[in-house]
Amino acid sequence: xxxxxxxxxxxxxxxxxxxxxxxxxxxxxxxxxxxxxxxxxxxxxxxxxxxxxxxxxxxxxxxxxxxxxxxxxxxxxxxxxxxxxxxxxxxxxxxxxxxxxxxxxxxxxxxxxxxxxxxxxxxxxxxxxxxxxxxxxxxxxxxxxxxxxxxxxxxxxxxxxxxxxxxxxxxxxxxxxxxxxxx
Length: 183
Description:
By secondary structure, the protein is mainly β. The protein has helices spanning about 35-40, 165-170, 175-180, and strands at about 1-5, 15, 20, 25, 50-55, 60-65, 70-80, 80-85, 100-105, 110-115, 115-125, 130-135, 145.
């Protein structure tokens, strides 16, 4: 497994495993504590795993948490997604930086999203399973959502958004959402 810094987002990493394929399918390690530790992250800090299943065109995000924020590892375990990370840490050298990834079940690559960054994705295949590993228990009272089509961010979503949650559809602008992240 190889870890690479994401230049557009300070403190973000892309973890790329090496899938071993044969006539049965493939096998790969999707999490390696030693590799995570080698880039200065605490592998024991992650406390909760979740998975979502989306269909082609579904858009989830942009999400972040107020207060201390939430760091996460994100991986598409089946299908393909267009994954987005936006740096919203005011004192970060990459503040308002954006990074885009195509994550897929074929590569099993994982993106580390630092606390204070917004995250979202769009399913590119008929079925896309996305796994999340977060560093503190989820508290819905801290959820912050930003409009996926905010003109200041100008995210180049590859497909029309065919479906999204009410919360995502009614999300405020970046400027309005940032008022709720202070703390």
